[in-house]
Amino acid sequence: MSKVHVLDHPLIQHKLTFIRDENTGVKEFREMVDEVALLMTYEVTRDLSLQEVEINTPICKTKSKVLAGKKIGVVPILRAGLGMVDGITSLIPSAKVGHIGLYRDPETLEPVEYYCKLPTDIHERDLIITDPMLATGGSASAAISFLKQRGAKHIKLMCLIAAPEGIERVQKDHDDVDIYVAAVDEKLNEHGYIVPGLGDAGDRLFGTK
Fold first, then answer.
1. β-pair type (154-162, 178-184)
2. Average pLDDT over residues 119-125
3. Averaged over 11-36, what is the pLDDT?
4. 41 is catalytic
5. Active site residue 200
6. Mean pLDDT computed over 185-190
7. How many CB atoms lie within 10 A of CB 90?
8. Does 176 participate in catalysis according to the annotation?
9. Is 104 a catalytic residue?
10. What 8-state DSSP symbol labels residue 83?
11. Which end of the chain has fewer CB atoms surrounding its CB within 10 Å, N or C?
């Protein structure tokens, strides 16, 4: 089964409280999501490989480590996933960014892809899918499937808050994808919102609530 990594660093948990708070305005909400995404990136990229190089410090010649050239890709699920991209790319400026858009068919209730633009070399990249909320898991699972169909081999899922139902769905459908979250909440309500959650992440990010 895919592993679930709950990132309970005090700074992440502190900022997540303000993200949840209904009194947090659009500007502050957007900034906090960006900051939490940046902090989460440290753990999501913990397994990046390193190589040794020789450099000259002001004192002497020495050997030190740099990233071993592993290519990274970030794929936000539109639209809320966009709010997490800058936090990642501020730490990994060489990462390429793709986009995937999904909507739910009103009859079948299944996710349907309406937009997908990806780096041409996604089969060579470690991909990080971003979406603040992992609720039912339907959109995340579909996005992973669409990426795999296009040749993606190494995928991680990065969310702020997850419901147990969403985690179970992604693990059932994609047991090779690790899930990184800042919190696992209690449940979904009858409208499919995470409880206690933070409301609609897209609306709060873009001021459309």
1. parallel
2. 92
3. 97
4. no
5. yes
6. 94
7. 13
8. no
9. yes
10. G
11. N
